[in-house]
Specification:
Length: 156
């Protein structure tokens, strides 16, 4: 009888887990984070075309020249990471993801959480030297590479 009850419990637990995964309920307290594919109203070709600094002169007192700079695409094993660094007032004001691994459910879950953290830290530290996120190591490293290539264009 104990084996039947235990087996029933295992089956019910598995079904509940499967339903939770299918409905998008993540193991982070029920909050389902979804990847944001709408980085801005600009298209990728418009962003690439805007790699020249806006305004007539570079900012002299700050680290970077104002403008939008598209980084190189970097391999993150399960897909590529490519970002655009937006510089205003000589500082990083935004980092937009053009591409990141998202074709697998696991990649979507990992990167929907990692991308905002990487973006936030890059803006905070004003460089591509961000901490690697545990569980998103390859995405973090590819983010660093793509952002660094964008910042190099911006005069870093």
């Amino acid at each position: 009888m104990k084996k039947v009850i235990l087996s029933a419990f295992v089956i019910v637990s598995f079904v509940a887990y499967a339903l939770a995964q299918k409905s998008g309920i993540a193991s982070n307290g029920g909050l389902a984070l979804q990847p944001n594919n709408q980085n801005s109203s600009l298209t990728q070709s418009q962003l690439k075309a805007s790699n020249t600094p806006s305004g007539s002169a570079a900012v002299t007192n700050n680290k970077y020249k104002d403008g939008s700079y598209t980084g190189n695409s970097a391999n993150a094993y399960y897909g590529n990471v490519q970002v655009v660094a937006v510089i205003s007032g000589g500082k990083i004001t935004d980092v937009q993801f053009l591409d990141y691994p998202q074709d697998r459910q696991t990649s979507q879950e990992i990167n929907s959480q990692a991308a905002p953290m990487l973006k936030s830290e890059a803006i905070q530290v004003q460089s591509a030297n961000v901490d690697i996120i545990s569980g998103a190591t390859l995405t973090s490293q590819a983010f660093q590479q793509s952002l660094q290539s964008a910042l190099t264009q911006a005069g870093a």
